[in-house]
Amino acid sequence: MTRLGDLERAVMDVLWDRAAAPRAGAESATGVTVREVAEALSDRELAYTTVMTVLDRLAGKGMVEREREGRAWSYRPAATREAHIARLMLDALDLAGSRDAALVRFARSVTGNEAEVLRAALTDEAADRQG
């Protein structure tokens, strides 16, 4: 899984946020144009071409999908933010000498609420596998 640089992460955050909140009247999340991403990141004072280059690189990395809408490209995330983070976590586990030891260390470091979320997810997964 590709790790994201600061600017790539900011662009992906715009895409993920827009995908999570579809526009009024749209049945599903629609893509975002380069101009819309640049406007969402206006506090960074980025050139349009910089945003276009970042989106093009993200498309090349498989992080975004793009579709032609008239003369402009429309971009959307290839996976959810949660799927991306989960992949990063699995990649980190692959770096561990012992996945079991790393998982135990991680499990001991989470808060009580986070432990409950993990426990519920594992219980649901076990139930799905049984039936």
From TrEMBL:
It comes from the Bacteria. GO terms for molecular function: DNA binding. InterPro entries: BlaI_family, WH-like_DNA-bd_sf, WH_DNA-bd_sf. Belongs to the BlaI transcriptional regulatory family. This is Putative transcriptional regulator. GO terms for biological process: negative regulation of DNA-templated transcription. The keyword Metal-binding does not apply. The keyword Oxidoreductase does not apply. Pfam families: Penicillinase_R. Keywords: DNA-binding, Transcription, Transcription regulation.
